[in-house]
Design brief:
The chain is an alpha+beta fold and about 110 residues long. The chain has 2 helices and 8 strands, in the order E-E-E-E-H-E-E-E-E-H. A 4-stranded antiparallel beta sheet has the order 1-2-3-4. A 4-stranded antiparallel beta sheet has the order 5-6-7-8. The chain is elongated and about 55 Å long.
Length: about 110
């Protein structure tokens, strides 16, 4: 049996034992916690990408109350991190127009 090459999250340090690890197993992505290595979740690559490719606004702190964006093809998806199942979709030109209008309205 070949050992699975697990990769530690880039957010983990070598001194901490508790981190998320990923591996490719039979064309799927496997995830586990380093402090519970026997419990492995397997998912399709596409499912994992849907979880990890959201980008948090640079104006957000480390709290869970922030706006997140992700690009899918020619669409931009927008969600609130504390309500991740509610997603709005738009195009880049429409998002730029919205942001310009919000900035103009915010000026004194």
């Amino acid at each position: 049996m070949v050992e699975t090459p697990w990769r530690k999250s880039s957010f983990s340090t070598d001194s901490e034992g508790n981190c998320v690890e990923l591996a490719r197993v039979d064309g799927r992505v496997a995830l586990r916690e380093s402090d519970a290595p026997a419990t492995v979740l397997q998912a399709r690559k596409r499912s994992v990408a849907a979880l990890i490719d959201w980008q948090k606004s640079s104006f957000s702190s480390n709290q869970d109350d922030c706006v997140e964006l992700r690009k899918r093809g020619d669409r931009i998806a927008i969600r609130e991190s504390d309500a991740p199942t509610t997603v709005l979709a738009t195009t880049p030109p429409r998002l730029r127009a919205l942001l310009a209008a919000l900035k103009a309205d915010a000026r004194p």
